[in-house]
Amino acid sequence: xxxxxxxxxxxxxxxxxxxxxxxxDSSATAPPAPATPAAGVQSGVFLSYNVDKSGTSxxxxxxxxxxxxxxxxxxxxRERAAGDQWHVTSLASLQPGEPVSLxxxxxxxxxxxxxxxxxxxxxxxxxxxxxxxxxxxxxYTLTGKAAQSQTPLDLGTYLxxxxxxQTNRAFDLAASTQPFAAAGxxxxxxxxxxxxxxxxxxxxxxxxxxxxxxxxxPNGVRMSPLTGNRWTAALALPAGSSLQYKYTRGxxxxxxRNAAGIEIANRSLSVVKSGAAQxxxxxxxxxxxxxx
Length: 292
Known about the structure:
Order of helices and strands: HEEEEEEEEHEEEEEEEEEEEE
Helix content: under 10%
Largest sheet: 10 strands, mixed
Low-confidence stretches: 16-35
CATH class of the largest domain: Mainly Beta
CATH superfamily of the largest domain: Immunoglobulins
CATH architecture of the largest domain: Sandwich
Strand content: over 45%
Mean pLDDT: 84
Shape: globular
Structural class: mainly beta
Number of strands: 20
């Protein structure tokens, strides 16, 4: 049972933690970013991503420094909870504070991003400032989306956290008065999309899949090029769910249209209820900014 006395004891502990001057203030201004990293794997914490005419880049915090790293056109972003299968996801789905590892080419360009975190199901003992103590005795620092929640957390609240296991920083938090179902029970289907695009598609452009799962961001899921003017992406989607989506070249001014250049309705997909995989083949008739 969680008692007021227990909470008071933990509150004293958290006061010591939050008042310790040796604990770094994550809100302090970071020093200038270091030089472009060499080839290999660079780990850090995801901060943001940017898309402009020069391409796509991601900014991570590494060794206390924000570092912007260019992303290759065919880069793949993967995500998983520790112990689960990897699934392809989009940059838009990554959360600030999420731990990531970037695979870099010799010139410092990222050709892959892996985001791996730990899921923690627990109960709240103490919530003070951006720190919490849970029923297991573990202390977590709230960051990113988890720190932005304005909802008061009461003693005994059930918590479902997504955590960086190296730092015990929780970047995502869900709270409930009832226990959460065991994480990872939902059956996922790997859906592979292959789309054929018009022959006049600029060779330097990247094709994206925009959908209701990425809040209709026009550059939601970066696809990978195949031969024959085709692009592909694989998503892990809940069995039996539905998806609405469209293809773009990174913006709504360059999205797909019908052969006459008229805007089309959202594409729709019903994910199968059983099995391990599903394949989808589509064709883009024309782009909004290009002739047929």
